[in-house]
């Protein structure tokens, strides 16, 4: 099939989100980084560097025939599993009580972020080769439950329930699009909810987060602290916000405001208008991803596009839900916007793959 032009609207939307992210990372981190590193531009410089690397990764993936990714999907799967195992060894780096990083010196990365894209490619290739069995639970669904179980087990010991859950949801979304039966989806969804409840009960700190979510003001200096500061930021922003760089809550009130709670800074500085703009940009990006998946020329392309779009959609929903106190606090970055080097590179590379699929998709209104 002849190549067409890429989906420029998707690419432009991605760049707009990245630029917003760079601006908001600087605005939210300047005071914090000045106090911690004596350099107001500490996070800005790092974010700019990773954005440039991510742009290179996106353009490379955009021009690399996505069909060739099939032969690299199994090696990518093996590498992701090996990296997750290494995290649990003495080579893993512990930060704030969690062992989620690998690296040397100041250069670190999270194998959990890499695993999301690796899992998408591997499952997409495997499903496209075995699509005829998708209606069968044991032949079509059970093998992928083992894959979910493997990723979940390795990541939950870090511990990182949010990333383990995200990968599980991504694979389930791919199974659903591949044609799994509704009865299987309902059964597995019920099992997933039951497992989540058990994981919360077995971990006291997770139970505290749930209690803090139900009534954050019961413990305003403990479990409810982050949520309260986030709500204060969102509430004080009003319709138009207090202005860039004029946030009060990111002045050492919200811990590391450039990461998981960056949406709160957007709400405070840019107001309701800023929040809605960011949400609409994400909705447009997700819509373009869905269209690419629907119009992909083959099952592999459809499932890869589904996985990538699901990954972005799931993380956007969780991050904004946490910032608005719509669910318990959990560490999920806002795609393209939150500070985080390897996450930004992975997301931009994933968009590059989506753009490459769009070259072959039958979409007229690009």
From TrEMBL:
Superkingdom of source: Bacteria
Membrane topology: Multi-pass membrane protein
UniProt pathway annotation: Cell wall biogenesis; peptidoglycan biosynthesis
EC number per UniProt: 2.4.99.28
GO biological process, alphabetically ordered: cell division; cell wall organization; peptidoglycan biosynthetic process; regulation of cell shape
Taxonomic classification: Bacteria, Bacillati, Bacillota, Clostridia, Peptostreptococcales
Family: Belongs to the SEDS family. FtsW subfamily.
Localization: Cell membrane
GO molecular function: lipid-linked peptidoglycan transporter activity; peptidoglycan glycosyltransferase activity
UniProt entry keywords in alphabetical sequence: Cell cycle, Cell division, Cell membrane, Cell shape, Cell wall biogenesis/degradation, Glycosyltransferase, Membrane, Peptidoglycan synthesis, Transferase, Transmembrane, Transmembrane helix
Name listed for the protein in its UniProt record: Probable peptidoglycan glycosyltransferase FtsW
Catalytic activity: [GlcNAc-(1->4)-Mur2Ac(oyl-L-Ala-gamma-D-Glu-L-Lys-D-Ala-D-Ala)](n)-di-trans,octa-cis-undecaprenyl diphosphate + beta-D-GlcNAc-(1->4)-Mur2Ac(oyl-L-Ala-gamma-D-Glu-L-Lys-D-Ala-D-Ala)-di-trans,octa-cis-undecaprenyl diphosphate = [GlcNAc-(1->4)-Mur2Ac(oyl-L-Ala-gamma-D-Glu-L-Lys-D-Ala-D-Ala)](n+1)-di-trans,octa-cis-undecaprenyl diphosphate + di-trans,octa-cis-undecaprenyl diphosphate + H(+)
GO cellular component: cell division site; plasma membrane
TM helices/strands, residue ranges: 12-32, 48-64, 76-95, 101-124, 136-157, 186-205, 261-287, 299-322, 334-357
Record function comment: Peptidoglycan polymerase that is essential for cell division.
Organism: Caminicella sporogenes DSM 14501
């Amino acid at each position: 099939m002849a190549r067409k032009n890429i989906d420029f609207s998707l690419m432009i939307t991605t760049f707009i989100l990245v630029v917003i992210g760079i601006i908001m990372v600087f605005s939210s981190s300047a005071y914090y980084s000045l106090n911690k590193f004596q350099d107001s531009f500490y996070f800005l410089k790092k974010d700019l560097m990773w954005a440039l690397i991510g742009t290179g990764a996106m353009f490379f993936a955009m021009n690399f025939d996505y069909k060739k990714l099939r032969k690299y999907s199994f090696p990518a799967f093996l590498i992701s599993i090996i990296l997750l195992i290494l995290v649990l060894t003495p080579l893993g780096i512990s930060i704030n009580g969690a062992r989620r990083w690998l690296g040397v010196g100041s250069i670190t990365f999270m194998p959990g972020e890499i695993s999301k894209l690796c899992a998408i490619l591997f499952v997409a290739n495997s499903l496209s080769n075995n699509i005829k069995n998708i209606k069968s639970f044991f032949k079509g669904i059970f093998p992928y439950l083992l894959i979910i179980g493997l990723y979940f087990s390795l990541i939950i010991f870090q511990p990182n329930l949010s990333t383990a859950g995200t990968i599980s949801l991504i694979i389930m979304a791919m199974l659903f699009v591949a044609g799994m039966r509704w009865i299987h989806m309902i059964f597995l969804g019920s099992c997933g909810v039951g497992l989540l409840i058990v994981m919360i009960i077995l971990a006291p700190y997770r139970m505290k987060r749930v209690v803090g979510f139900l009534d954050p003001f019961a413990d305003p200096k403990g479990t409810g602290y982050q949520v309260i500061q986030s709500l204060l930021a969102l509430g004080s922003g009003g319709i138009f916000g207090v202005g860039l760089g004029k946030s009060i809550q990111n002045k050492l009130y919200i811990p590391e405001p450039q990461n998981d709670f960056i949406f709160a800074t957007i709400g405070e500085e840019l107001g309701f208008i800023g929040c809605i703009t960011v949400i609409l940009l994400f909705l447009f990006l997700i819509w373009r991803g869905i269209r690419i998946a629907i119009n992909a020329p083959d099952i592999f392309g459809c499932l890869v596009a589904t996985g990538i779009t699901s990954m972005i959609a799931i993380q956007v929903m969780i991050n904004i839900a946490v910032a608005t106190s719509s669910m318990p606090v959990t560490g999920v970055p806002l795609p393209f916007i939150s500070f985080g080097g390897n996450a930004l590179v992975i997301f931009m590379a994933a968009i590059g793959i989506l753009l490459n699929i769009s070259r072959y998709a039958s979409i007229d209104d690009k």
